[in-house]
User: What shape does this take?
Amino acid sequence: MHQILTDKKNIILTIALVIIVALSFILIIHPMSNNLKKTYQDYIDKKAELDATEEKFQSLKKLENIQEDIINANQNFLKFIPNEQETEDIMVSLDALARETSNNLPDFSVKDGDKKKNIKGTTRFSKKNIEISLTGNFDTVLDFIQKAENLQRFNQINSLNLSADSSTGIIDLGLSLYTFYKK
Assistant: This one.
C-alpha cells in the first residue's frame, strides 16, 4: 500500500509539476516570447527606417556633389569671360592669329551689343560684335578659323562669309562674332 501511495504521490507531483511548468510557460515565457517578437519587429522597423534615411543621406550627398560641380563649372566658365577692360585683348589675339597663319587682316570694327544677365542676376554681361575682314589662301583662312575657335574665352560666331577669286586663289573672309565680357 505504501507503494500505491508513493505512486499516487508521484503522479500528483508529476501533474503538479506539469501544471507549474505550463503555468510558468503561460505566465512567464509566453509573455517574454511576445515581448521578444515585438522587440525584434521594432528592430526590423528601425532598421528599415535607418536604411531609408541612409538612402536619403546618400542622395543628399550626390546632390551636394552635383552642386559643387555646378559651382566649379560656373567658376571655370567665368574664367573665359573677361572684365570689360580686357575686351580689347580679343582683337590683339585675332590679329596675332592672322599674322601667325600668314593672313592679311586689314579691317576690324567693334560694336557694342546687348546686355545679358547671368542666372543669379548679380553680374551683368555685355557682348561686343567684332567684324573682321581677312584675306588669304584656303589653307591659311581655314587655319585661322580653326585657331580662332580654340581661343580661351567665350565667343560666338554670328556670321561667316567667304568669297574666292578663282584666278588667284585668294579668299576673302568676312567674320562677325560676339565676344562677351563682365560689366
Summary: The radius of gyration is 43 Å. Helices lie at 2-79, 88-100, 138-149.
